[in-house]
Amino acid sequence: xxxxxxxxxxxxxxxxxxxxxxxxxxxxxxxxxxxxxxxxxxxxxxxxxxxxxxxxxxxxxxxxxxxxxxxxxxxxxxxxxxxxxxxxxxxxxxxxxxxxxxxxxxxxxxxxxxxxxxxxxxxxxxxxxxxxxxxxxxxxxxxxxxxxxxxxxxxxxxxxxxxxxxxxxxxxxxxxxxxxxxxxxxxxxxxxxxxxxxxxxxxxxxxxxxxxxxxxxxxxxxxxxxxxxxxxxxxxxxxxxxxxxxxxxxxxxxxxxxxxxxxxxxxxxxxxxxxxxxxxxxxxxxxxxxxxxxxxxxxxxxxxxxxxxxxxxxxxxxxxxxxxxxxxxxxxxxxxxxxxxxxxxxxxxxxxxxxxxxxxxxxxxxxxxxxxxxxxxxxxxxxxxxxxxxxxxxxxxxxxxxxxxxxxxxxxxxxxxxxxxxxxxxxxxxxxxxxxxxxxxxxxxxxxxxxxxxxxxxxxxxxxxxxxxxxxxxxxxxxxxxxxxxxxxxxxxxxxxxxxxxxxxxxxxxxxxxxxxxxxxxxxxxxxxxxxxxxxxxxxxxxxxxxxxxxxxxxxxxxxxxxxxxxxxxxxxxxxxxxxxxxxxxxxxxxxxxxxxxxxxxxxxxxxxxxxxxxxxxxxxxxxxxxxxxxxxxxxxxxxxxxxxxxxxxxxxxxxxxxxxxxxxxxxxxxxxxxxxxxxxxxxxxxxxxxxxxxxxxxxxxxxxxxxxxxxxxxxxxxxxxxxx
Length: 725
Ligand code: ZN
Ligand code: ZN
Ligand code: FE
Known about the structure:
Layout: E1 2-8, E2 11-17, H1 20-29, E3 56-58, H2 79-85, H3 129-136, E4 157-161, H4 172-181, E5 186-189, E6 194-199, H5 203-212, E7 221-223, H6 227-233, E8 234-235, H7 238-245, E9 251-256, E10 272-276, H8 281-290, E11 294-298, H9 310-316, E12 323-327, E13 339-343, E14 346-351, E15 361-367, E16 370-372, E17 382-391, H10 401-417, E18 424-428, H11 434-441, E19 445-449, H12 451-462, E20 469-479, E21 485-493, E22 498-504, E23 507-508, H13 513-517, H14 519-537, H15 548-560, E24 566-567, H16 570-580, H17 592-600, E25 612-616, E26 619-623, H18 625-636, H19 641-665, E27 671-675, H20 682-694, E28 698-700, H21 712-723
Parallel strand pairs: 1-3, 5-12, 7-10, 9-13, 16-18, 18-19, 20-27, 22-26, 27-28
Antiparallel strand pairs: 1-2, 4-12, 5-6, 6-11, 7-11, 8-9, 9-10, 13-14, 15-17, 16-17, 20-21, 21-22, 23-24, 25-26
Residues 451, 455, 475-476, 478, 676-677, 709 line the site of fe (iii) ion.
């Protein structure tokens, strides 16, 4: 066949001429005979006049006004490249920046489309003749591999002291491993940003990292050399194995074996350990040559964005690592490692970043160009165009200027590379969220979307479901349309509207934000407002560490409704129960009390606590007095926290099933979606799904976007699209 092919900002254009049968065969095989990581989204064919091309040629890339193409996420090192870096006779032996068209950096180095070397941070490296030859040879694995490089012409490693001064060592990798072996902390520049690493078996090193990073309890992830090592420390199911080995190479939460030699301080109070396998040549070399298990956690200060530039690392991370292992390939946009788990046999994404973004979620309908700004915690934004929802990578908690800057910069980048000019902007109803303030400051139509409505729509959208459903939204906090904080909701609706059919009864959050950091306040509030001061008096031992004066003030706050907002949050209920059982009177990271409550649950226990539904103004109110009473009774009776936790989980499932049955009897739908941060709890989400299915409901859950606030922007965007019509 004769003709030409080129790469454009719209995609690939091919014109071919030849015998009719050959051209037919070509069009048939076009979508199947493709490189491993290629993905055909749409194929469009057109008959053209005979031109009489003399040859077949690859033409230069072109930019077409307003047109866009999908951009690939970064891809874990392929098997061929792995073989090369471990082969002493290969010219890329031990070269940490080896890649090919089937693997390597993509999104993190792209400044604009079309995806050509000149539009990436590799532009500054001139290919040597051998690399150039590979790049231009259509039969080579590196044909048009934009980040192609070798030890002669590509990026290089350097090892610096804790001030950022080069140590001028001969073999930076080997010296870095030496430091890790001595229990030192290293900042390692990776694919999406800097990671902080230390020996995961060395308790002192792990504790030192926790101290320096101001992160006392929140679990760290570890990187293990290969699947065999993962099995030494964790149970790995078939589904989990697939995730670990996937080209996205995410962190996978695995059941952590008791006999594992990894320090428990890596993930205190957890039964799961976040494990990832090496995903760059640098990691492969590091893990293979050190034979270590390494803690690998985002290089940032507490909740700031992950650090991307060398200079930025020296200034912002200064004081955490003992040394920096850096290189000179720039990261244009940073992203964190993604976090996944297998829930009920299906993969679920808890943090969507490296390997997944900026690949869009495909929708079964076309959308207007909309920017949805997400929420406050675990923020992502979403830009829509055609049938695509481009959900950003995990941006982080929008509580500081650094994160807001990262948010704005990433919004600009997505708008640029996907050529999207939003006509409308959607945001959460909470006026104090930085994302809301940002959205309101933009021009164009503005749409405030209720938080839990957005959660429901997010799950509907990724499942392509347009019919009305019951949405069980168990969440932390989100501002409701009545000014209270919602979070234990049963909504009925679709993309266009919702009705709040049932919710947990409103209870006080004594001290507001202080109650989030101190679950004992929630516990005190539950017992005091549901059972009264007298009943509480018998259980004051639980609050023994709290001064009497403080307790009296809380009573007053609740009685007078001062600084004691009302909430129906299921997340706060978890916090309160956790504190009642003495697990987490105070927390150091979001969700800690709820997670620790889940972790201790005895999965064999089948009992429940009582509760009841009460109708009020057309809604079902889920009354919790008997539940709290039952828990206090169990505590008095000396039952173990493991049993009580399990019974609490079972009760929530029963609440879900009973409430859906009631809504259904009143003419509600038979389909249920589960969303909200509380459903990251595996025990609860697996139990709820099974319970509802046994009761005859069809259940939709999250898979490609997080159930937590990281998935919220998708729901906001889809709702805005329907409302803005
Ligand atoms: Zn490769
Ligand atoms: Zn080269
Ligand atoms: Fe939420």
